[in-house]
Design goal:
The protein is α/β, with parallel strands linked by helices. The protein is built from 27 helices and 22 strands. The strands form seven sheets. The protein has a six-stranded mixed sheet. A five-stranded mixed sheet has the order 4-3-2-15-16, covered by helices on one side. Strands 9-11-10 form a three-stranded mixed sheet. This is Serine/threonine-protein phosphatase. Its EC number is 3.1.3.16. It catalyses: O-phospho-L-seryl-[protein] + H2O = L-seryl-[protein] + phosphate; O-phospho-L-threonyl-[protein] + H2O = L-threonyl-[protein] + phosphate.
Length: about 675
């Protein structure tokens, strides 16, 4: 009996270990693909900046089209759009059966919104604009850093990313109670994108913010950003739900986002901010920044590095990141400070504080007849801007130091020594941040001085992770509460849960492999010296990582991705047939163009949404061709006009000379071959 028990125990431990390996591989796949997408997003933002300097328009309308979206002046002018709040001009039809609200709001109004959204009702645009206008007036009165005390309540509840998942917010309120005078809440950013109910989450939280201005606090996240919303779904959601007034609502929301506070401090001991910190984080500086004038979505990872500063040094110190930002900023500085008749070039050292003077780091600066106005601009604007990027985009790491966050493409990685330094400088004892999905909904690191809290359960796939929130009492000891919205996962075994999430992750990974087919084949051929069409599996793993650069354990994943490799050799041309198939609409389009499209669908959609200025969801052939011209400029590749025209004609389904954006993107969605076969 004892031997049998030992054997069963040993078998079970091996079984759990195998499940854990599969679970971790799956998690790594999801996170690698997610962060690669964020890198693409920041590269696209850099491309827009580059575009303004290098794109040659064929007519004045084209430059106006791009310019009105991406110049800083246009963003600053958004403060003039408060006239969009003229909700009284919008009539409320008699047939409207949704919730009604009056101002000033009461707790009953906010609770009624919760119930209405629970039953899938929609708030009328008239009320939405009025609610956003009142929220904006309130946010303008708030400091960059809110100060909260536990003296007047039993505990404070802190929630992390929700990402448009209304069911998670409803479950939190069900388990923990609605906000009230006795029930304080701090929401730590990333309310929107990815999920389908982002606008409902915002309206609920804004309503409670107005009812309980001292008990509800909302920090800004990195997804409360115009360009990020274009890519990850929030813009599309607003336009679809509020078609006639969607543009007004969306523009007003962007202003509201720009006025959101950046951090919250509890009892002068606990700092709460979305991403985290860096080695240069100074709360006194952050408190003085004009947050509504700061464009937080910039690349601090040196991707447009053009000066003489050594690249290695620029990527390993925060000062180097500042130098990279500093060098990239001269064109915009020139436009702000100098006319062509007043500019002259000179050599000057880096203007940032504490920067070591080094002749090799001298760069060409723009001066105004000897004036240092550009340097003053960089000190007052770019340096604080980088600090805000750091607190919204950064992640903790186990190693000591502070380095650029090359995985996300923005912010930095900060180690336990940096955490200790910043907390000690401000006499703090704990940093609570969000920004990263964790399987258990939370994670402690840096000697339990950093707590990551993530409140969107089932983030990657049903059953992929739990959500969590944390409660702090006067003793400031974290009390964590975990949950998972779906009841389905409770009925599944461990193996079923892991297998379900694993299938979803592998499907996304196969899409990545298929979209890089040409690059992979070229790399495979370099290893195939004898032109046999076969390579060893070890070489396969090396090539796949070198092309995709996802940092995945390819040798562990080999059994899931490679079905057949006789004698340890992979027939790499046949291998692609087992990955994915394309929809029939793409049959007559050149293969290299297909792969470019698959690989850049998110970038294309972002550009399409921008070009579709009237938000009709349709683009003309001319706009479609212009989009591809922008993309080819971004990718530094040649795409013939004939290929683009063939592509346009193949997806003009009703032959009316215009292209539906959603149908276009769906036409080039990769379909998993196994599921496609089952459906047939």
């Amino acid at each position: 009996a004892m031997k049998a028990a030992v054997l069963i125990q040993r078998w079970y431990r091996q079984y759990v270990a195998r499940m854990e390996v599969r679970r971790r591989c799956t998690w790594t796949i999801f996170q690698s693909i997610e962060y690669a997408g964020e890198q693409d997003q920041i590269k696209l933002q850099n491309f827009f900046t580059y575009l303004m300097d290098h794109f040659t328009p064929t007519n004045s309308n084209q430059r106006d089209l791009i310019s009105h979206i991406f110049t800083e002046d246009e963003v600053y002018k958004q403060t003039e759009l408060e006239y969009y709040c003229d909700h009284e001009t919008i009539e409320l039809p008699e047939s409207y059966a949704g919730p009604h609200i009056d101002f000033p709001l009461t707790a009953a109004h906010a609770a009624a919104l919760v119930e209405a959204f629970r039953h899938k009702q929609q708030l009328h645009a008239r009320y939405v604009l009025q609610l956003l206008h009142e929220t904006l007036k309130h946010l303008k009165l708030l400091p960059n850093i809110n100060r909260v005390s536990t003296c007047f309540c039993e505990e404070i509840t802190i929630c992390g990313d929700l990402h448009g998942q209304l069911d998670d917010l409803l479950l939190i309120f069900y388990k923990n109670g609605l906000p009230s005078v006795e029930k304080l809440y701090i929401f730590n950013g990333d309310y929107v994108d990815r999920g389908k109910d982002s606008i409902e989450i915002l309206l609920i939280l804004f309503a409670f913010l107005l009812v309980y201005p001292n008990e509800v606090h909302m920090n800004r996240g990195n997804h409360e950003d115009y360009i990020v919303n274009l890519r990850y779904g929030f813009t599309k959601e607003v336009m679809q739900k509020y078609k006639m007034h969607g543009r007004k609502i969306h523009k007003l929301l962007q202003i509201v986002f720009s006025w959101m506070p950046l951090a919250t401090v509890i009892d002068q001991k606990v700092l709460i901010t979305h991403g985290g910190i860096s080695d240069t984080t100074d709360l006194d500086i952050i408190a003085k920044v004009d947050r509504h004038k700061v464009l937080v979505f910039i690349d601090a990872s040196n991707s447009f590095f053009t000066g003489e500063c050594p690249r290695r040094e620029a990527r390993t110190t925060s000062q180097g990141r500042c130098v990279a930002l500093w060098k990239r900023s001269w064109r915009s500085v020139a436009g702000k400070w100098a006319s062509p008749n007043h500019m002259k070039m000179a050599s000057s050292p880096c203007p940032f504080p504490n920067q070591t003077r080094n002749p090799s780091m001298s760069v060409n600066l723009i001066t105004l007849n000897g004036s240092r106005n550009p340097i003053l601009y960089l000190r007052k604007v770019c340096w604080p801007r980088l600090k805000i990027v750091d607190i919204l985009w950064s992640d903790p790491m186990h190693q000591e130091g502070c380095v650029p966050n090359a995985v996300r493409g923005g912010g930095c990685y900060y180690g336990p020594d940096v955490t200790e330094k910043v907390l000690s400088r401000h006499n703090l004892q704990l940093l609570i941040r969000s920004h990263e999905c964790k399987q258990d909904g939370y994670e402690f690191c840096h000697n339990r001085k950093v707590l990551t809290i993530f409140s969107a359960s089932n983030y990657y796939e049903l059953g992929s992770n739990r959500g969590a929130y944390v409660k702090l009492g006067p003793d400031l000891i974290p009390h964590l509460v975990q949950y998972q919205v779906s009841r389905t996962t409770r009925k599944l075994t461990m193996k079923q849960r892991v297998s379900r999430v694993e299938r979803s992750a592998l499907r996304a990974l196969r899409e990545q492999l298929f979209s890089h087919k040409s690059d992979l084949i070229s790399a495979f051929e370099k290893y195939d010296k004898n032109k046999t069409g076969r390579i060893p599996l070890n070489d396969w793993a090396t090539v796949v990582e070198s092309v995709l650069q996802l940092g995945l354990p390819w040798r562990v994943l080999r059994s899931q991705l490679v079905q057949s490799a006789p004698e340890g050799l992979l027939e790499y041309h046949a291998w692609f047939h087992d990955l994915a198939i394309e929809q029939p609409t793409a049959e007559h389009v050149h293969q290299s163009l297909l792969e470019t499209l698959y690989r850049n669908r998110s970038n294309l959609e972002t550009i399409f949404r921008i070009i579709d200025s009237d938000n009709s969801g349709l683009v003309s052939f001319e706009e479609f061709c212009q989009t591809w011209k922008l993309l080819s400029s971004h990718l530094n590749m040649e795409i013939s006009n004939e290929a683009i025209s063939d592509l346009a004609r193949s997806i003009d389904f009703n032959k009316d000379g215009s292209i539906d954006i959603n149908e276009f993107l769906e036409a080039f969605r990769l379909v998993d071959k196994i599921h496609y076969t089952e459906r047939e």
